């Protein structure tokens, strides 16, 4: 990447765009609703069970002008979901400013490991043990989504629940490859601890992106 492109990416005026697509939100509070997804490349959190590892290396994804991203997004939906990778690796303020100028609702799915930039209508915080969220994102998250891979993740989930704001909705979601094992454990846990809700990757059951 040349210096000019690098400067634009660092400012958030261009972003390493992995993919963008219109589909049904499959997870969390807004599941079942139509949304336009913008997947930004770049992530160093390193979850071993990540199902989009091809997003990790930002250099594999072309720097794309945010004006082009906005132009595409507004054709499809009033709800835009920015995901990754880890979108907060980059400055999200320029992108969200332009999306807001179009009157769009903007959601983010983030581990919260980096500074919270941008203006968001909905923040889905999915924290990871390897790189914990910032205090600011704990305070502003609308939903907390903890991925359950093994029994220790229930302990981690409670630690994270103690840090978010009182209005934050709490979700436990099975890691897809372990779903047959952990779904019964999640069901039992939620029934015993009803402050939690179950989130499923319903888009995978529907066989859609």
TrEMBL record:
Its cofactor is Mg(2+); S-adenosyl-L-methionine; [4Fe-4S] cluster. [4Fe-4S] cluster binds at residues 43, 47, 50. PROSITE patterns: RADICAL_SAM. Residues 30-209 form the Radical SAM core domain. S-adenosyl-L-methionine binds at residues 49-51, 85, 126-128. Signal peptide: none annotated. One of its GO terms (biological process) is tRNA queuosine(34) biosynthetic process. Its EC number is 4.3.99.3. Binds 1 S-adenosyl-L-methionine per subunit. It catalyses: 6-carboxy-5,6,7,8-tetrahydropterin + H(+) = 7-carboxy-7-carbaguanine + NH4(+). InterPro entries: 7-CO-7-deazaguanine_synth-like, Aldolase_TIM, rSAM, rSAM_sf. The keyword Manganese does not apply. Keywords: 4Fe-4S, Iron, Iron-sulfur, Lyase, Magnesium, Metal-binding, Queuosine biosynthesis, S-adenosyl-L-methionine. Pathway: Purine metabolism; 7-cyano-7-deazaguanine biosynthesis. It holds the Pfam family Radical_SAM. It is an enzyme of class 4 (lyase). Substrate binds at residues 24-26, 39, 83, 209. GO terms for molecular function: 4 iron, 4 sulfur cluster binding; carbon-nitrogen lyase activity; magnesium ion binding; S-adenosyl-L-methionine binding. It comes from the Bacteria. Homodimer. Catalyzes the complex heterocyclic radical-mediated conversion of 6-carboxy-5,6,7,8-tetrahydropterin (CPH4) to 7-carboxy-7-deazaguanine (CDG), a step common to the biosynthetic pathways of all 7-deazapurine-containing compounds. Belongs to the radical SAM superfamily. 7-carboxy-7-deazaguanine synthase family. HAMAP family: QueE. This is 7-carboxy-7-deazaguanine synthase.
